[in-house]
Structures are given as C-alpha cells and as structure tokens.
Amino acid sequence: MSRPEIRVSRLHKSFGDNHVLRGIDLEIGQGEVVCVIGPSGSGKSTLLRCVNLLEGPTEGQVFVGGIELTDPDVDIDAARRRIGMVFQQFNLFPHLTVTENLTLPQRRVLRRGKAEAAKVAARNLERVGLAEKADAYPASLSGGQQQRVAIARALAMGPEVMLFDEPTSALDPELVGDVLAVMRMLADEGMTMMVVTHEMTFAREVADRVVFMDGGVIVEDGTPERVIGAPRHERTRHFLSRLL
Ligand code: ADP
Ligand code: MG
Q1: What share of the chain is helix, strand, coil (3-state, %, to 5)?
Q2: What residues does 236 pair with on adjacent strands?
Q3: How far out from the chain centre does Cα 191 lie?
Q4: Cβ–Cβ contacts within 10 Å for residue 47, how many?
Q5: pLDDT over 80 at 2, yes or no
Q6: d(Cα 118, Cα 129) in Å, to the nearest integer?
Q7: Residue 70 Cβ contacting ligand 1 at under 6 Å
Q8: 40 lines ligand 1 (CB under 6 A)
Q9: Pocket of ligand 1 contains residue 147 by CB under 6 Å
Q10: Can you give the residue ranges of the ABC transporter domain (predicted)?
Q11: What's the rounded Cα separation, in Å, for the pair 150 and 153?
C-alpha cells in the first residue's frame, strides 16, 4: 500500500458503560475505496465519526494524511478540512439556494471570496450533474438530488478523503442509482473513500476492500470477492445471508 491516507490504531470508544468500539486497526491507502458493512449497532457510524473526530476516541489514534487528529495539540479545524463527510440525512440549509449551500462553508471556513466560492460551487454542481439546479431551494429537489448537492458541498471544500455514512439509506429505491453513480465517479477519479453502506453491488463493483464489523471489532477485511463472495466467519455469512 502507498502511504496510508487514513490510519486508525487500537481505537476504542465508549459511551458511558457502552464499550462501542473495541480495538479497531485500519489503514486506507491513497485512492483506496473501502466499504464498511455490518449489522445495525455494530459501531460503523461511531468509527466514521471518530475518523474526523466528531466523536473523541476513548483510546487509540487516528491519522489522516499523516497528521494525528488525536494529538491534543493538533489544529483540529485545519485537520478536519481535509475530510469531507456525507450523512444519511443531507443536512442542507432549507432557506438557502443550492449555490448558497455550497458557498457558505467555503466562505466561512476557508475564507474564500465570493467570486471564487461561486466558481468552485458551479464546478462541483457540474460534477454531480446538477448545474441547472444552482438557484433552486433544497425542498424543490428530490432526495437523490439533495444528496448529490450534499456531496458537491463536501467536494467544494477540496477534501483529501471522503467519508460516507449510509448515503443512500434514506432514499427511495429509484433515486439510489444517481447518488451511487456520483460516488463511483469520485472513486474513478482516485478519491480516498470510506463508505458505510448496505449496497452490496456498489461494494462489489467499486470497493477495493470490504470491512465487516460486528460488536465493535473488525471481523473481516479483504477484497469484495473474498469478504462478500467467500466470507470466512460465521458472523459475516449470517449478516450477508440476511441482506440477500
Ligand atoms: P451502526 O452505525 O453500526 O448502526 P453506531 O455506531 O451508530 O452503529 O452505534 C453503535 C452503538 O453506539 C449503539 O449501541 C449506539 O446506541 C451507541 N451510540 C452511538 N452514538 C452514541 C452517542 N452519541 N451517545 C451514546 N451512545 C451512542
Ligand atoms: Mg450507522
């Protein structure tokens, strides 16, 4: 593997007595796409949220692009700018147009000027196929379009890695494909991606590796052919059998 873009080492996370992450070790190389699968409550979202320190780990280390985010002296805001995150809920501002949703964080967080922010917004709306919706309000868009706007908003910040937490789980089935197509494009462009998903076709076709989590540990980590096609552990087989 090239220099790991994301490295998680002996990561633990507890909420009170609930020991959710129980020693996670994971490396994701530059340009690698890793899908994280596993049953509800296994700690997938918590892991993703620890990678950009939305949750502070109880123990262990997180590195992104060679910078240790868990170092108490790190400039966490600067470090987090390298990481784009897309959630199941799109979290767009309803009172702002699509373009304004993309320019606001660029201006506030990156201190970009108005013209430059607008240019970057337009370019990224084009990338997700929504240039014609620049002046629309989120409520007038389908869920799939809103999620593509949320992806464009994250991309407009120029992230080095993208984290996706079940980006298509809230969508009507007919809208899932367009969002996955955008994610596939990003993967093809060489973006480093960590994707929590139940979309096994996407995982098989796009992921370089699939990680199966259960009970706060990584049970299996390998190519999609290996983990989905020939799982070694009973827990993985059981999980996959319920999806199909
Ligand atoms: P998954 O995404 O795999 O469904 P989560 O990471 O969301 O799992 O949750 C794993 C466990 O952590 C669950 O028991 C959940 O209740 C708990 N948990 C997650 N976030 C919090 C939080 N902010 N406060 C307390 N408990 C939490
Ligand atoms: Mg989750």
Answers
A1: 40, 25, 35
A2: none
A3: 11
A4: 29
A5: no
A6: 16
A7: no
A8: yes
A9: no
A10: 6-240
A11: 5
